[in-house]
Each structure stands twice: as structure tokens, then as C-alpha cells.
Please model this.
Amino acid sequence: MNPPPVREEGLVVVRGGAGGFVQEITAGRHHLVADEPVGAGGTDRGPSPYDLLLGALGSCMSMTIALYARTKKWPLEAVVVRLRHSRIYAKDCTDCVVRDDTMLDRIETEVQLSGQLTAEQERKLMEVAHKCPVHRTLKSQISIEEVPAL
Model:
């Protein structure tokens, strides 16, 4: 029998068996499933971990844009964010300081705004998109700490 889900604010619990890639994710009262595509050995029951990461970034960007537009009372009607993750060699990155055979993660984002926005409003909303909390977290140095099990 599985223990009841933990509903502590800010705590995400991930459970999976040893026989495959399917993971049950509980975030508060929300339940998600993650998996790998069939081609990667999974059963495709849910988005991959990288798809979830892109979804987190894209949703944060969209929410931040919409909140800013509402605050300014700008005529934004909709936001669509398209994201893609890839890995590139550092030596192929023209903007990177590191120049060797290490791999770098790259996330490409494309933002579409709908509404009767001026060019200046669109420019500002695009600027705000790249300042969303998840974007800042991903661009910062991240410390992932292992803590003892309770």
C-alpha cells in the first residue's frame, strides 16, 4: 500500500518502480505522470523530464507576461510559448566562454503575443518574459543538496 501523498506546500514527491520509467508526481493536490517515449525505452504515459522542465519554463514565461500586461492594463489577449531543448558542443557556441568538447544544454524559446499591442509594449513583454522566476533560476548557479531521509 502506498503512503498517502504529502500535501506540504512547495514539496514535490516523485515515486516510481524499478521496472520502467513511469513516475508518479504529486505536487500538493496535483498529480502528474512522467515517462520516456517508447523510442527511449519508456511507455509514453506522460511527458519526459525535459518536457516537464520546458513546460515549467514556458508556463512561467507566459504567466509573467500576462501578469505584467494585466498590471499595465495592456490589451494582451493570449500568449503562446514554444520551447525546444537540445545539447550542443561548447566549441560550437559563439556566445560561450568555455571552448572545449563539453556539452552545453540549450533551450530555444519562441514567444507569440496576441492583442492590439504597440511595438514598445511587445518589446517590453518580451523583455519581461526572460526575467520570469524559472528563467532566472535556470540561468543561475543551482545548488542541489541531498538531505537525509526522514
About this structure: The chain has a mean pLDDT of 90. Strands lie at 12-16, 23-27, 30-34, 76-89, 103-115.
